[in-house]
């Protein structure tokens, strides 16, 4: 059972990080697109964010099960650090993508500013995800 949970945890980590890499080249195309193509790119962006969010739910649940079955305490440095970063990233993700995508759908006149904001959010969120990934893989001992 434990090994299957590790597998599920690993797959959900890949699914929660992977879609964001498809969005990097899409940002450039989003800047140059119009009409139905523009809407399709925004739909793809929304789908990737939702997929990542739901995979993140599986990731957290499987991680909690792994902690329980593996008898890992909450105060283990890499677990505590991961949960701190995860908690902070939840606030970030809730405000970073969906409100900006909603404004882009309204065809706001400051499209370039909004796309720059979306681009910054994408790279910042990838950085946060990689910090959590580093904590989970390297398991550093901070104390």
From TrEMBL:
The chain crosses the membrane at residues 6-24, 55-72, 78-97, 118-137. Keywords: Membrane, Transmembrane, Transmembrane helix. This is DUF2269 family protein. The lineage of its organism: Bacteria, Bacillati, Bacillota, Bacilli, Bacillales. InterPro entries: DUF2269_transmembrane. It comes from Paenibacillus gyeongsangnamensis. It comes from the Bacteria.
């Amino acid at each position: 059972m434990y090994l299957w949970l590790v597998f599920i945890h690993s797959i959900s980590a890949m699914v929660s990080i992977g879609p964001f890499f498809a969005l990097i080249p899409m940002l450039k195309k989003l800047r140059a697109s119009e009409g139905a193509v523009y809407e399709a790119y925004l739909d793809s962006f929304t789908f990737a964010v939702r997929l990542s969010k739901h995979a993140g739910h599986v990731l957290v649940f499987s991680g909690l099960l792994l902690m329980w079955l593996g008898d890992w305490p909450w105060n283990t440095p890499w677990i505590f650090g991961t949960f701190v970063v995860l908690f902070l990233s939840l606030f970030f993700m809730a405000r970073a993508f969906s409100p900006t995508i909603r404004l882009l759908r309204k065809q706001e006149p400051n499209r370039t500013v909004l796309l720059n904001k979306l681009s910054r959010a994408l790279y910042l969120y990838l950085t946060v995800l990689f910090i959590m990934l580093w904590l989970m893989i390297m398991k550093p001992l901070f104390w």
